[in-house]
């Protein structure tokens, strides 16, 4: 602990479950911890330990340790929390996993923040300094459609190399309620946007051109997204983000996304068949292939996210997906194994049906099968995922995608080569 004459010292910890090697330099910093730092009074000294880059300073003198955790990070987060509490340092935990399983988290922490940290953080710190820390700090459920948050404190990332520290959110929440996604429950089924002027002002405070929006669906409400994009048009930035493929139903919105400086967008295709297909035919009759081509033709790198393991997936899903990718040629594909996260309706369903193989949270990582599939074995699902990754990142598949995406050829090639390495490595490790 710090002595009474020193300013209080907050350590924020981002747990890591594995070492990334050189790939850590292409990661993005924790948005949640940047926002917690921004909500911390200036009278506090704030230090960040990101385990992708740092060792956790267990022997440091801290007034409080704050740890964020997604489900796959929970086990490591608990180890870190236990170590600090053994030394008498109070620990508060927050993030998605402690929010949905607060009682579990409280066996490793002195306090848990449920929901968004900003509304309750200053109260928590004041309670701590006055010796009346509560065990639960529950943020009020968001109301309305306006998001107001402090600008992130990027100085806490000094000395660490990331792809960029110029990250922000324009919105929180999502208009969709997918059964495998925790976003909508976590944000109280709300979908809020910041004021366009506030977003533009924060971007103008950045030093470099590259900016990444960490929204779950930045284009989910086109009517509210367009004024933001209009303000970004003259700022000379290059940005990336995440959205639903349906934004491409509006050609004007696609043009505006490109004109605002977007160089890449991550979209959830999810499945190429069945109930979980991401709207194979849209309201105006466009197919997924039409929408992908529209985005590509605008010069935007399109990363298509695919999930294997839905209940209508049998062994044919891998071949169907690979042929779909050949026909639609997004800039690059990303493959995930369906993961039933705690707090989602999918987790509840699988738990009630007795289909969860275990609750070893560190293995809830999109790269291991943690449930019993309905139409194939867990082993076949895993093997099919590996085989699909290997084929999608063969040189012939990469060059086919590059040929279909002539605009931004170098960027497309660079991204595909970066993704090829991890896919090749995983295949060799499991051969």
Walk me through the structure.
The chain is of the alpha/beta class. The protein folds into 2 domains: 9-138, Cobalamin-binding domain (Rossmann fold); 166-429, pyruvate-formate lyase- activating enzyme, CATH 3.80.30.20. Helix content is 35%, strand content 16%. The chain has 15 helices and 14 strands. The protein has helices at 31-39, 74-86, 96-100, 102-106, 118-129, 183-186, 196-204, 222-232, 251-259, 288-297, 317-328, 345-352, 378-392, 395-404, 409-429, and strands at 9-14, 45-50, 64-68, 91-94, 111-114, 136-138, 167-168, 171-173, 191-193, 210-213, 238-243, 262-270, 301-308, 332-337. The strands form 3 sheets. It has a 6-stranded parallel β-sheet with strand order 2-1-3-4-5-6, sandwiched between helices. It has a 6-stranded parallel β-sheet with strand order 7-10-11-12-13-14. Strands 8-9 form a two-stranded antiparallel sheet. Helix 7 (196-204) packs parallel to helix 8 (222-232), helix 13 runs antiparallel to helix 15 (409-429) and helix 14 (395-404) runs antiparallel to helix 15 (409-429). The protein starts with 8 loop residues before the first strand and ends with a helix. 42% of the residues are buried. The model has no long low-confidence stretch (mean pLDDT 90).
How are the elements arranged and paired?
Blueprint: E1 9-14, H1 31-39, E2 45-50, E3 64-68, H2 74-86, E4 91-94, H3 96-100, H4 102-106, E5 111-114, H5 118-129, E6 136-138, E7 167-168, E8 171-173, H6 183-186, E9 191-193, H7 196-204, E10 210-213, H8 222-232, E11 238-243, H9 251-259, E12 262-270, H10 288-297, E13 301-308, H11 317-328, E14 332-337, H12 345-352, H13 378-392, H14 395-404, H15 409-429
Parallel strand pairs: 1-2, 1-3, 3-4, 4-5, 5-6, 7-10, 10-11, 11-12, 12-13, 13-14
Antiparallel strand pairs: 8-9
Helix pairs in contact: 7-8, 8-9, 11-13, 13-15, 14-15
């Amino acid at each position: 602990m710090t002595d009474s004459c020193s300013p209080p010292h907050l350590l924020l910890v981002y747990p890591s479950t594995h070492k990334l090697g050189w790939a850590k330099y292409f990661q993005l910093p924790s948005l949640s911890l940047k926002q917690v730092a921004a909500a911390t009074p200036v009278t506090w000294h704030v230090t960040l330990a990101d385990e992708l880059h740092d060792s956790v300073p267990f022997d440091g003198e801290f007034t409080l340790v704050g740890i964020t955790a997604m489900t796959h990070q929970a086990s490591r987060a608990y180890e870190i929390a236990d170590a600090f509490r053994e030394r008498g340092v109070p620990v508060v935990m927050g993030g998605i996993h402690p929010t949905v399983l607060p009682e579990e988290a409280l066996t490793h922490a002195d306090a848990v923040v449920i929901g968004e940290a900003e509304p309750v953080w200053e109260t928590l710190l004041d309670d701590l300094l006055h010796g009346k820390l509560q065990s639960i700090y529950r943020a009020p459920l968001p109301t309305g459609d306006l998001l107001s948050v402090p600008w992130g404190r990027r100085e806490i990332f000094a000395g660490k190399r990331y792809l960029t520290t110029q990250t922000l959110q324009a919105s929180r929440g999502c208009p969709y309620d997918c059964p495998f996604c925790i976003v909508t429950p976590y944000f109280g089924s709300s979908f809020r946007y910041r004021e366009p002027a506030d977003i533009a002002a924060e971007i103008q405070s950045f030093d470099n051109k590259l900016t990444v929006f960490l929204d779950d669906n930045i284009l989910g409400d086109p009517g509210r997204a367009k004024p933001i994009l209009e303000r970004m048009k003259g700022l000379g930035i290059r940005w990336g983000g995440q959205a639903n493929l349906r934004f491409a139903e509006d050609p004007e919105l696609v043009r505006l996304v490109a004109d605002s400086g977007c160089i890449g967008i991550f979209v959830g295709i999810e499945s190429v068949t069945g109930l979980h297909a991401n709207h194979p035919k849209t309201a105006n009759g466009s197919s997924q292939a039409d929408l992908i081509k529209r985005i590509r033709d605008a010069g935007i790198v399109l990363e298509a996210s695919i999930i294997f393991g839905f209940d209508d997936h049998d062994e044919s899903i891998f071949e169907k997906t690979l042929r779909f990718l050949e026909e639609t040629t997004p800039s690059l594909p990303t493959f995930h194994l369906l993961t039933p996260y705690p707090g989602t309706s999918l987790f509840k369903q699988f738990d009630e049906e007795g289909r969860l193989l275990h609750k070893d949270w560190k293995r809830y990582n999109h790269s291991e099968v943690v449930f019993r599939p309905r139409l194939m074995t867990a082993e076949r699902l895993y093997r099919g995922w590996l085989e699909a990754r290997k084929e999608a990142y063969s040189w012939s598949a990469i060059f086919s995608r590059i040929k279909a995406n002539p605009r931004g050829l170098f960027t497309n090639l660079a991204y595909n080569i970066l993704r090829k390495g991890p896919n090749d490595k995983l295949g060799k490790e499991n051969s």
